[in-house]
Amino acid sequence: MKNVLVLGAGLVSRPLVRYLLNVPEFRVTVASRTVSKAVKLIDGHPQGKAIELNVKNDAQLEELVSKCDLAISLLPYTYHVKVAELCIKHKKHMVTTSYISDAMKALDQKAKDAGIVILNEIGVDPGIDHMSAMRIIHAVENSGGKVVSFRSYCGGLPAPEANDNPFGYKFSWSPRGVLMAGRNDAKYMKDGEIIEIEGKNLFRNHWPLHIEGEPEYETYPNRNSLPYIETYGLKDVKTMFRGTIRNTGWCKTLICIVRLGVLDDTERDDLAGLTYSDLTRRMVNAPDGVTTREATKLFLGEDASNDVLDRLEWLGLFSSDKLPDEPTYLDVMTARFLEKMSYKEGERDMLVLYHDFLAEWPDKKKRITSTLVDFGIPHGDSSMARTVSLPAAIATRLILQEKIKITGVHAPVLPEIYNPVLSELETMDIVCKEKEFTL
Hints:
- By secondary structure, the chain is an alpha/beta fold.
- The chain is built from 16 helices and 16 strands.
- The strands form three sheets. Strands 3-2-1-4-5-6-15 form a seven-stranded parallel sheet, sandwiched between helices. Strands 10-11-12-7-13-14-16 form a seven-stranded mixed sheet, with helices on one face. Strands 8-9 form a two-stranded antiparallel sheet.
């Protein structure tokens, strides 16, 4: 029997845990701060075990890692390196769905020396995006061509029938993570020029996105796209862009939310007893005798169109509702967004992933697209949960069954990883559909 340790029991973990429990030779331990969540995931399965874990308890964490064959970290990304160092110490494999940080990358040689693989970025974005992209890139290169432009877009959204609020958005993963991502700087390449965007201006850089068979979306840059030139081996590329997909209107509204300053995560002791209107008036220095909406419009100027103000009003920022008992502005907003934009029982989410390549050969040019549109299961797993956690689960099985034999710190950009993972995802109706257009 192989022992798999799953650290964390959050929104996306259920499909992974259920997949691994159905592998006959696996025993699965789910360790979570909230043990009731782990118990629910195991659901009485004879090969599963749920335990309570305080990840700051170094001795307990090390004991758990030492007893497993592979640790899957679904913890906040700040803990991944800590887990990785324990996996190296005890020569245990590791899987995460998070981006490879510089600190994680620095562990590559130590992981090789320990004879283990630390496989990161094996979710959906990052994850399926890498794997579906590399399948196309390698096919182009193997036929004598080169990729000169690559644009990739991904977003989790409500399914059309569940898209019933003015933001066009609902949360299928951490709302705090979504809001914090709105503060990220961004960098990409367009026609050979490096474009850099400060976090405060992120949402001012958005554009319409047209995908065949889909409604019009909008997209904005997703972090730093440039490292993926090296990751994907695109030495001839002149355009490299990774973007986030949202429904139209999200970016205009988030411009204003950022400008209001309510994404600040500084701990405060002056929020007790305030209403949302009190908070907004504080942020915009509202004069007496002026309504909160009017004061907000004056503060935001031309950014505050009527539809944006309507969304802020729907969110409750002008209301007399009391603030939740949270320590920071960011946590207050996280709680409000989650309250107003959660999925109702039985509603479906959707995941849209779209690649757009330009490729050249000595005698021709082609545009190649790859499109994945996946829906959640009513009263079952969300699309976000399936597409994030199933690639990690499949990779875990392949590693423990010695079908993936690499060592070191990796993303899933090698054929021995992406081919079997994508093939198995297709049996679950998670399919990237590719099209070619001769230019």
